[in-house]
Amino acid sequence: MAKKKLGLEDLGGFVFSTNDDFDEKDYVEDESQESLSPDEQELEAHFSNKGRGGKTVTIIKGYQGPEEDLIALGKLLKKKCGVGGSVKDGEIIIQGDDREKIIQLLKKEGYKKVKRVGG
């Protein structure tokens, strides 16, 4: 079976610019997100054991800022608590129910608005 040759109309709506003044930088969105200072952040420390085979975790929600800063904060909390965890979908997941300890650590780091949520 011979392959069918594609024409320009088969390329799915690509637009080829012939404008000499075209500058790609004007059309690229700036994805960097400003990080709020710790005292402006409103974080929530949730307790959960759903979807984890009965294992309890503490989930920190509400962080606003770049993903790199969130990962660094998650790493700090895991290290200080001496447990494992991860950072997924803008949330820090810490193994175990250590909400009180995590809230105290966050307050030491300058996060003044930290709520305890659940159980």
Automatic annotation (TrEMBL):
Residues 50-110 form the SUI1 domain. It comes from the Bacteria. Residues 17-48 are annotated as: Disordered. The keyword Metal-binding does not apply. Residues 20-42 have a biased composition (Acidic residues). Pfam families: SUI1. Keywords: Initiation factor, Protein biosynthesis, Translation regulation. GO terms for biological process: formation of translation preinitiation complex; regulation of translation; translation reinitiation. One of its GO terms (molecular function) is mRNA binding. The keyword RNA-binding does not apply. Belongs to the SUI1 family. This is Translation initiation factor.
